[in-house]
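ok so I'm stuck.
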Amino acid sequence: MLADSDTRWKWGSLTASRIAPEGAALDGYLLRGRSTPTARQLREVGVRADSLREVTAVEFLRDMQRAPGAYDVVVLALVGGGVQAVLHGLAHAWAESADRPVVVTGYVGVVYEKLADGLLLRHGADVVLANSAYDADRFRAVYEGVGADASSVTECALPFLGGARYTDAHDPYTVVFAAQPSVPDTAADRLYLLDRLVRHARSHPEREVLLKLRSRPGEHTTHIEEIPYQKLAQRIDLPANFRLVYGNMGEVLDRTDLLVTVSSTAALESLHRRIPTALLTDLGVREALGNHHFTGSNCLVSWDQLDAGLCPEADPAWVARQGVAADGTYESAFDGARAKVAALLAHERPALAPYYSRTTAPGYLPRVLARHHLAPDGSPLPGAPAGDKDPGPVRQIVRRAARGAYRHGVQRVAPVIRRMGEL
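replied:
not stuck anymore, here's the structure
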């Protein structure tokens, strides 16, 4: 399994464990980049691999080329461009192999933006997982609409849903705001949401109010967080019943009575447990925020309504269509994907054939592949960094320093430069 961030590691490793043949080992690869997860982030996910290595795309492809029959399934838990590059790289690496692994990919959560772009970048995998019936219909429509084979689309569910069903209120009643790294993306909007959360805590002193954060300062997740809530919180006098928390989302949901967010995938985890869940409308219902995905859910509310005591009740039909499986059918949600993988393994697989090629996208595909040091035919470019299996202590220190400098630039320097440019 190849992943490029903590959230995709979580999705990819759990997906692999649910669809791979029984008793299969999990070999983990982390794609070296700006969002490569730290050891703390990996521990927080709580999934252990039988082996784990940090690699470049070229090094991963060389491993796959050396032993194409060593694996039954390869799960690509990457951003769309990364999936497309690796698919072309694998097609080149396995050109002479008649017994290649089954290649699986998908999405880590709600698909609310770049639907066509992201899907076509994932086309070419043997299995493209859709986390709900709603997504499966949309995915097939995109592929069929451009004349691409849609047989890879396979309905399942998010692999990290679970936990006890919500029944009774906790003592104290606990409100959790699930923050997102990039939504909303302005300091003013993020400060507004933080201020409303703090005001809710002050107006309800009998409640415990938690701000659930995805990463600690200096860490990155799937999306870049330029304006961390931790930094904004330093400007505010926080009430005694308000706390910032980290950790596994499932463990936080164990004590949650009301989950509030803009559009986080945490909302689906909460709805799966039948916890009252609120998607905020304060900043509008907009595609840029992702909360438009929840239209029809009966969960779109404002802070004013929550302050007044409103407790949303999700529409059961909407929840069922979204793959949340709150009706107890979750354990069978992966049966179709397991059967698909088993059927593919039982027969010789044809060569990987992504929709994007030098014929269909000659002005786009080479750029996508070049970002991962691959030529248009999927072969490594001359001088491509191949990485090393056992970097020495000096090289490890240099890598950590480089990542730290990059993250400092994103979170500290870049916002200052933008503000100066607006003067």
